[in-house]
């Protein structure tokens, strides 16, 4: 009797399934993205429920440095990353012999800025001032370009995003440079006269780039932060859904409301 009852239940289930009355459970498509905490991981957390409704299980792997997210994408330990800009990606590819990572979407600009706890105006910066800048090539060049736009130094080519200290041809204030890991710059701000800090690290340190900086990049900066995947997964449905979500009106409003000019949509 039990065997007949079980067979009957199986037959009913088969009939219901055949006519679409029982929908088979579909597993969510997992997508692992590496990101730095602010604002990248915060923006990803915002789109996570949006993607869940579309069948994508977005998992966010947070890093506090600028190397591992790219390395782990390249090594296929994560599906992509959201933290870098194009000059950094190009420099990373050159130094790590990596041609796998490709740009999927431009998301936002974090205007780079100069900060000081010792001086309220740039004009007060003394002769021989110590200036801390990031030590990775793309961001150190970015810092020098921004300093040149403030008239603090002159470069051979003021449009060269790969400029180094060797490219300085005039340094009227005899600035002394300290190149440090980008994440440490907010912590040494009170030990130097001026520090040029990436906005994600500035926000983490409770600095408001719009209100607290002595000078700041404008929204036309070429350093838009990117969603990056690999050539082998850039066209996957999950990556495409994430790109669409990150370029949505909802994300644009979220960025504008939450960061109030410290982060600017780039789409």
Report what the structure shows.
- With 267 residues, the chain is α/β, with parallel strands linked by helices.
- It has 2 domains: 29-111 and 222-265, Periplasmic binding protein-like II (D-Maltodextrin-Binding Protein, domain 2, 3-Layer(aba) Sandwich); 113-216, D-Maltodextrin-Binding Protein, domain 2 (3-Layer(aba) Sandwich), CATH 3.40.190.
- The protein has 9 helices and 13 strands.
- It has helices at residues 2-18, 37-53, 68-74, 86-96, 137-149, 199-204, 209-212, 237-246, 249-259; strands at 29-35, 56-62, 80-85, 101-109, 113-115, 130-134, 154-155, 168-170, 176-180, 194-197, 215-216, 224-230, 264-265.
- A 6-stranded mixed beta sheet has the order 2-1-3-12-4-13, sandwiched between helices. The protein has a 5-stranded mixed beta sheet with strand order 9-6-10-5-11. Strands 7-8 form a two-stranded antiparallel sheet.
- Helix 2 links the parallel strand 1 (29-35) and strand 2 (56-62).
- Helix 2 (37-53) packs across helix 8.
- The radius of gyration is 24 Å and the shape is globular.
- The N and C termini lie far apart (66 Å).
- The model is unreliable at 1-25 (pLDDT under 50).
- Residues 1-27 form the signal peptide.
Features:
single chain, 267 residues, alpha/beta, D-Maltodextrin-Binding Protein, domain 2, six-stranded mixed beta sheet, five-stranded mixed beta sheet, globular, disordered N terminus, lipoprotein
Layout of helices and strands, plus pairs?
Elements: H1 2-18, E1 29-35, H2 37-53, E2 56-62, H3 68-74, E3 80-85, H4 86-96, E4 101-109, E5 113-115, E6 130-134, H5 137-149, E7 154-155, E8 168-170, E9 176-180, E10 194-197, H6 199-204, H7 209-212, E11 215-216, E12 224-230, H8 237-246, H9 249-259, E13 264-265
Helix pairs in contact: 2-8
Signal peptide: 1-27
InterPro entries: Lipoprotein_NlpA
Subcellular location: Membrane
């Amino acid at each position: 009797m039990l065997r007949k009852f079980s067979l009957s239940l199986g037959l009913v289930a088969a009939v219901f399934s055949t006519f679409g009355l029982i929908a088979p459970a579909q597993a969510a498509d997992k997508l692992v993205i590496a990101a730095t905490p602010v604002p990248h991981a915060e923006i990803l957390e915002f789109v996570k429920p949006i993607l869940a409704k579309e069948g994508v299980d977005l998992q966010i792997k947070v890093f506090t440095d600028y190397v591992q997210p790219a390395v782990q994408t390249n090594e296929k330990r994560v599906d992509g990353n959201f933290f870098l800009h194009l000059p950094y990606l190009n420099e990373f590819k050159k130094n790590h012999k990596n041609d796998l990572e490709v740009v999927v979407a431009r998301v936002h600009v974090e205007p780079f800025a100069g900060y000081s706890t010792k001086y309220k105006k740039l004009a007060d910066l003394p002769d021989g001032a110590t200036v801390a800048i990031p030590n990775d090539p793309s961001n150190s060049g970015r810092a020098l370009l921004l300093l040149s736009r403030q008239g603090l130094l002159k470069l051979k080519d003021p449009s060269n995003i790969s400029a180094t200290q060797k490219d300085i041809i005039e340094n009227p204030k005899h600035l002394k440079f300290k190149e440090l890991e980008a994440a440490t710059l907010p912590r040494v701000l009170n030990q130097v006269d001026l520090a040029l800090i990436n906005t994600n690290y500035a926000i983490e340190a409770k600095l408001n780039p719009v209100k607290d900086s002595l000078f700041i990049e404008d929204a036309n900066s070429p350093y838009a932060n990117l969603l990056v995947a690999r050539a082998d997964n850039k066209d996957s449905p999950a990556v495409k859904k994430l790109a669409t979500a990150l370029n949505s009106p909802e994300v644009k409003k979220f960025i504008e409301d939450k960061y109030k000019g410290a982060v600017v949509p780039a789409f």
